[in-house]
């Protein structure tokens, strides 16, 4: 299993038939079926919560896949008007195109398959050492993963196979009793009694609006990453992950020197850990390397800004962009371009 960009190890291996001709690995859990892929993270649900979570774990460097097919709450929305960044709103189909493109751009696989079951992996099973779960889809695909993020608002029945009745509650709907996933089952950070299982949706009122759901998905993913880093030895004081690109000017003065970062790390890490000096030094240097990787010059930031606009136009489609601009503006721009030559 990959440890993210902190460690130079191989990412999870996808051995599904599409990619490699169908190499099989026998599963655990006493189920006679083949594992088609191994991933660090499986995200179930490709709406705002699931896609937001996927972007964060993938940008960190974990090997992730999003399964997205099934009842979707946002599809019931006629037009999305309160999502920050779209002053006049955005149609739901285009919004989904954009968030799915973002997921794939971050390095996460996206599959249109319905998850039917999540199973626990037996400790003595022959699946990869770090795999805790096997996720099965309606296409018969079985994926082993260390982490599962549930992010499907309407349907949590795929978690029934974990055999914990506390996950579900009965409620009355149109005069009939129905069973549904209990949004109070995970804690406020999405953690559950099952190590490695996180819930980004359903999450009560945090699932009620698209932008809030996206924020909750990001929060749950950051909690997963914090747990992941602690499991790999990072002291709690330096385990929180910040996905933030810094301007070159922030690495000036004393903060341009690694020794200043080393001092900061040791102060934040404290002494409440059982790491030996060599391991602590290794983690400290990785942390500092990662911090310096977030450094962007003005030219690099400008290049990314241009690339971001170009990619946005690619996803929307140049024709749609041109259709939204009046002819006089296009003609004026074309004349300016000719004059510049």
UniProtKB/TrEMBL annotation:
Residues 1-23 are annotated as: Disordered. Keywords: Flavoprotein, Oxidoreductase. The keyword Oxidoreductase applies. InterPro entries: FAD/NAD-bd_sf, FAD/NAD-binding_dom, Ferredoxin-NADP_redctase_2. Residues 40-151 form the FAD/NAD(P)-binding domain. Residues 1-17 have a biased composition (Acidic residues). One of its GO terms (molecular function) is oxidoreductase activity. PANTHER family: THIOREDOXIN REDUCTASE 1-RELATED-RELATED (PTHR48105). This is NAD(P)/FAD-dependent oxidoreductase. The lineage of its organism: Archaea, Methanobacteriati, Methanobacteriota, Stenosarchaea group, Halobacteria.
